Amino acid sequence: RTTMKSLRFISAEAFVSNAEFARKSLGAVAHDLFPLLFKASYLLEQGEVIHDLVENWPLFDFNMGKLLGATLDCQEDLSHRTCSVCLESCLTGLRDYVLNQSSPYTKKLKVVDLTGIKDVEVQFCKCKKTMGRWARTQLLSKLCSELLVYLQQAQCNPGTFEISISVLIDLFVTERNYELVVQALLKKCSCPLKICCVAFRSDNLTLQKFFYIIKLTDPSLLRKLEIVHNVHLEMEHLEILFNSIHFPLLMSLTLPARTFNVRRFTATDEQMLSNIGEKMGEMTQLTELSMSFSILTGRIQKLLSPLKTPLKMLDVSNCSLNHADMAYLANSFHANHLEALDLSGHDIPELYPSTFFKLLSHCSSVLRSLTLEDCNIQDTHVNMLILGLSPCQKLQEFKFIGNPLSSQALKHLFTFLCELPMLKNVEFPVPRDCYPIGITYPIDDASLCRFDHQKYERVAEELNLILLQANREDVKASTPLFGSYDAAVQETNNELGAYLIKSFKETLEKFTISFNKMS
Fold first, then answer.
1. Which InterPro entries does this one have (predicted)?
2. How confident is the model over 291-324, as pLDDT tens digits?
3. pLDDT at 297 (0 to 100)
4. Architecture of domain 339-485
5. Which pLDDT does position 156 carry in this prediction?
6. Which residues, 6+ apart, have CB-to-CB distance to 116 below 8 Å?
7. pTM higher than 0.90
C-alpha cells in the first residue's frame, strides 16, 4: 500500500529511523517539526523516539486524532493503529513530561486529546499487539496514580505542582479495572494529569459501582454513554439516573438489553416511561440512541416524541415493535435525518412492509448504514427491497445476515448493490440452499454452522465476482455468523466469559438448593 509522502515527511522518517541519533538531537529541533516527527515515529513504530517527543512536547495541545490523521505531508491515516508499543510510549512520555525538570522546552502543554484513536479489527502495525480502549483506560489510570505517589515522595520542583493538563479520553470500565479508575478520578484535583472523560462505556459492573463511578466522571462533559451487557440496568434505575444526574452535552446513549419490558407494565411504569422520555428531551444534543433487545411494543412514540433534536442513529433491533411504532417512526421528524438505522429481529415483510418502505424513502437522502438482520426477507421480497434501496445513494453499509435468501436471490441483490456509489461494507447471509432442507428461521445457534461450507464458498466467490466485474473491489462482502466485529467485546471477552460462567454456576447452585429442599 503506497501513500503520498512529502519530501519533508521522508526526511522526518530518515531522522527518526536512527532512534539513538534522533533522541540526542531533539533539543535542536524546531517546535513546529514535532508533529511531523511524531507521525513519522508512529508509522515506523519507534517507541523510544515517541516517548522523548511527548516528554519534551513544546506546544499547547497534543491531539492524537489530528497528529495521526491524513496530512499534506503524509496522506495515510494512522488513527486506526492502536499499536501497543506506540501508545504505551506515548502515555509514559506524558507522565515523564510532568516529571522532567531538565527539558530545554518551556512547559506549555494544556490539553491532550486521546479520543481520536479508532479501534478496528485489522491492524497494520509490525508488532501486531494492540492497546484497546480498556487497556488505554487502565494504563492512564495507573500512570496518574503512580505520578501522584511519586510527587508526594520525591523532592520535586515547585513548578511541577503547577502543571495542569486536561487529558481527554474515552473511558472503558469493567469490574477488573474499576478500583484503579476510581482512584485516578478521586485524586484528579491533585494530579497534574487530569482525566476528562468524554465517552464512558461500562460493562460487567454492579449497579452500585456504576452509579458511583458515573458521578466521578463529571457527567456535564460526557458526550457518549454506553451501558452494556452485564450492567443490570432496568427502567426504574434509568429514571433514578436521569433524575439524579444531568447530561447536558450527551450526544449518544446506549442502553443494555432488557432495560424496558412493556409486557409487565403497570400504570406506574407508564408514568416512569413518560418521565424518561421527558428527561431525554432535555438532552438537546442527543442524536444517537441504541435500545436493542428491550420490549417496547407500542411505546416508541412515548419515548421519542419529547426529543427536541432529530435522531441521526437509531437502534431498535429485537424490540418487538408493532405497526403503530413503525408508523410513528415513518412519520416522525426523525425519519428525514436518520443516517444509521437498525431494525433487526422484526418480520418486516409480514408486519409492516409499506410503512417500512415509507420510512426508508424519508431517510434515503441521508442514510449511510442499514441493518436488517433476521427480518424474514425472502426471495419474493428482493425486488421490493431493491426498489426501496435505490434512492439510498449515500448508503455505505448494508447488513442483512440471518434472512432466508437463496443463492440466486443474493446474486440478483448484489448486481443491484454494485450501483450504490458509496457502498463499502456488505454483510450477507449464508444462502438458504446451503442449509439442509426444512431449516427454520431464525436459525438457532446450534444449527448456525451446519451448512454446506463448500457450496457457500462457491456462492461467495460468485458474489465477489459480481463486485469485481462491476469494478467494485472497494466493497467488502462477508458473512460474520456470530455478529460484526466489536473491538470492546473482543478486548474484554475473557472477563465477560468468566462472568457468565460464574453467573451460570450461581444459578445452578440456587437451583440445586431449591431442588434439595423440595426433595
1. LRR_dom_sf (IPR032675), LRRC14/PRAME (IPR050694)
2. 999 999 999 999 999 999 999 999 999 999 999 9
3. 97
4. Alpha-Beta Horseshoe (3.80)
5. 75
6. 63, 64, 65, 66, 68, 69, 79
7. yes
Q: Amino acid letter at 117?
A: I
Residue 508 has which C-alpha cell?
445452578
pLDDT value, residue 320: 97
| Helix then strand then coil, % of the chain, to nearest 5 | 50, 10, 40
Q: b/e map of 410-436 (b: 16 or more CB within 10 Å)?
A: bebbbebbbebeebeebbbbbbbbbbe
For 85, other C-beta atoms within 10 Å of its C-beta total 18
Cell of 193: 494529569
Question: What cell was used for 181?
Answer: 479508575
Distance of alpha carbon 185 from alpha carbon 8, whole angstroms = 41
398 pLDDT band (50/70/90 cuts)? very high
Instruction: Give 369: exposed, middle or buried? Use CB within 10 Å, 0-12, 13-18, 19+.
Output: middle
Would you kindly state where each structural domain of the chain is located, as residue ranges?
7-131, 339-485
What's the rounded Cα separation, in Å, for the pair 97 and 195?
A: 16
The residue whose grid cell reads 461500562 is 202
Per residue in 400-415, pLDDT (tens digit) is 999 999 999 999 999 9
Residue type, 239: E
* Contact (CB, 8 A) for 187 and 216: no
Tens of pLDDT along 463-492? 999 999 999 999 999 999 887 777 777 788
Are 372 and 399 in contact, with CB atoms under 8 Å apart? yes
8 Å CB contact between 282 and 307: no
